[in-house]
Amino acid sequence: MDTYFTLFLVIFCAFFQLSRPFTVIMSDSGVPSTLIDGPQTGFSINKNGARTNPQEQDAVYDIMRATGNDWATDIPDVCRGRWHGIECMPDKDNVYHVVSLSFGALSDDTAFPTCDQTKSYLSESITKLPHLRTLFFYRCFTCNPQPIPKFLGQLGSTLQTLVLRENGHIGSIPAELGNLTRLRVLDLHKNNLNGSVPVSLGLITGLRSLDLSGNKLNGSIPAFSFPVLNVLDMSQNLLMGSIPFTLGSCQSLVKIDFSHNRLTGSIPDSFSGLKELILMDLSYNRLSGPFPTSLSSLTSLQALILKGNQMGSTAIPSDCFDGMKDLMILVLSNMNLHGPIPESLGRLNSLRVAYLDGNHFNGSIPSNFRDLKNVSELRLNDNHLTGPVPFGREMVWKMGRKLRLNNNSGLCYNANNGFEDAFDRGIGLCDAPKPGSARTVQHLSNSTNGDMTTTINVSAGAVRKTSVSVRLSQLASLFLFILLSLQGK
Ligand SMILES: *[C@@H]1O[C@H](CO)[C@@H](O)[C@H](O)[C@H]1NC(C)=O
Ligand SMILES: *[C@@H]1O[C@H](CO)[C@@H](O)[C@H](O)[C@H]1NC(C)=O
Ligand SMILES: *[C@@H]1O[C@H](CO)[C@@H](O)[C@H](O)[C@H]1NC(C)=O
Ligand SMILES: *[C@@H]1O[C@H](CO)[C@@H](O)[C@H](O)[C@H]1NC(C)=O
Ligand SMILES: *[C@@H]1O[C@H](CO)[C@@H](O)[C@H](O)[C@H]1NC(C)=O
Ligand SMILES: *[C@@H]1O[C@H](CO)[C@@H](O)[C@H](O)[C@H]1NC(C)=O
Ligand SMILES: *[C@@H]1O[C@H](CO)[C@@H](O)[C@H](O)[C@H]1NC(C)=O
Ligand SMILES: *[C@@H]1O[C@H](CO)[C@@H](O)[C@H](O)[C@H]1NC(C)=O
């Protein structure tokens, strides 16, 4: 049990919100899947004969009362009359010890005791459970906001998983949590925590997942270095300062999400060491250029999301993407990027979604973009691109409205591109129209200022092809991949 490291992932997938494509909850405790259903049979009680340790039993009664679950005090032996959310282990003397307590309706499949949100609190009796490995509270104290109690730091000798998710916790993260040196999972997602991230958390060297996202944490990110950390999520806070270069030594990272903060400076070169990284989301910060070429060595990266950082008139080196062989999702919208679209992007065979919109890319779309067979969504709109669109009929049809080209200074299409809605897309035909065709397209270029006026007459019967929505299954397969990658560890 100690060595077996299971993960369960809860994936919240918002199709049109790439900034927060998923959330990962990891647990090494087996919660909730290994929780025992209902009371045990008389047979196993007689055979086993184990009894719950009386001090721990009283502590559990206190904790249950504090969350409005007074019914539990009618159960004569809490480890024998088990409910979803309590887990016990017998020792060699046949005494049961409480190893896991969970509260809150996490999903439809789990039936942990819920909390009376108006008056629940975290009872200090938790410190009387010396064998506790997992403590899990979800949406418990929301209407009775309270700080995270410092006494949790006393569970340092055993606690491996501490999840206090969406509980409405206020105040700062107690430095005492740094005493929980055996912790593997620390999840304080979506509370109202303020103050800064305690430096003491750096003492928890066995940490595998650290999720502090969705709070009001300010100050800068401490110079952490966690050797076995897989998931680091500090998104949706008020964090400032630069990204510490020490994070480049967290070589087990698979997900790093610092999106929606106020981070400044450039992406550290040390990130080139994150060989296991699958997802990097640094969107909506204040990061500056130059464009991080160190990322080209991230050979496992599948999603790179940097949108909403004004990189400041910086160009992307042409071979920048050559190392990212597995990249599926690239989001570089609104970054003030200049110069040509790098050709190396057209060599990413796995690419599925690419947003390059709202920049100052100029020149033509690299001709090798026609080889991006798996792209289902491509945004090149609001740039200064010129020249012919390199896609064939099949790609245009497959992407449908998810191919966005509008508001570029001089893109045009050829007859073999298969555009039937060129007018809506705001692009004109490259060559002169054939007179007398059923559908005529006129393209007037004002050579004095480079602006273009496009007039298109489309015959009434023009068929607009419906785009096939493939995105759902593709994203799902990405998540599945991440799941499998994590479980392989
Ligand atoms: C926990 O950590 C704090 C400060 O980080 C320290 O003062 C305290 O002695 C530690 N021990 C316990 C049991 O909380
Ligand atoms: C955190 O918020 C509380 C109110 O919830 C406030 O009293 C306290 O001063 C804040 N602390 C910091 C460091 O911002
Ligand atoms: C964090 O915010 C509080 C007010 O909420 C402020 O007093 C404090 O100076 C801020 N800390 C930093 C490091 O900016
Ligand atoms: C492209 O997509 C197909 C079908 O989803 C898949 O079988 C193939 O492996 C993908 N190719 C690459 C290079 O990802
Ligand atoms: C693109 O813009 C840069 C200035 O940002 C300019 O030097 C370059 O010549 C332009 N390239 C093309 C093909 O227009
Ligand atoms: C066109 O794109 C540029 C950025 O390249 C943007 O500043 C401008 O607002 C866009 N125009 C329209 C009409 O959207
Ligand atoms: C071309 O643009 C210039 C400047 O905007 C304008 O004065 C002129 O009338 C335009 N010519 C045509 C043919 O639209
Ligand atoms: C396009 O339609 C307009 C009226 O809607 C007409 O005046 C014009 O002659 C047409 N142009 C062509 C090239 O058919």
Fold blueprint:
Elements: H1 42-48, E1 51-52, H2 54-66, E2 86-90, E3 95-103, E4 134-138, E5 161-165, E6 185-187, E7 209-211, E8 231-233, E9 255-257, E10 279-281, E11 303-305, E12 314-315, E13 329-331, E14 337-339, E15 353-355, E16 360-363, E17 377-379, E18 384-388, H3 393-399, E19 403-404, E20 410-413, H4 422-425, E21 428-429, E22 440-445, E23 452-457, H5 471-487
Parallel strand pairs: 1-3, 3-4, 4-5, 5-6, 6-7, 7-8, 8-9, 9-10, 10-11, 11-13, 12-14, 13-15, 14-16, 15-17, 16-18, 17-19, 18-20, 20-21
Antiparallel strand pairs: 2-3, 22-23
Overview of this protein structure:
The protein is mainly beta. The strands form three sheets. It has a 15-stranded mixed beta sheet that branches. Strands 12-14-16-18-20-21 form a six-stranded parallel beta sheet, with no helix packed on it. It is elongated, with a radius of gyration of 28 Å. The relative contact order is 0.08. Among the domains are: 51-133, no CATH class; 288-431, Leucine-rich repeat, LRR (right-handed beta-alpha superhelix), CATH 3.80.10.10. The model is unreliable at 1-47 and 432-489 (pLDDT under 50). It contains five helices and 23 strands. One 2-acetamido-2-deoxy-beta-D-glucopyranose binds next to loops.
Query: What's the assembly state of these chains?
Result: single chain
- Give the class from helix and strand content and strand pairing: mainly beta
CATH topology of the domain at 288-431, by name, is: Leucine-rich repeat, LRR (right-handed beta-alpha superhelix)
Low-confidence blocks of residues: 1-47, 432-489
User: Tell me about the biggest sheet?
Assistant: 15 strands, mixed
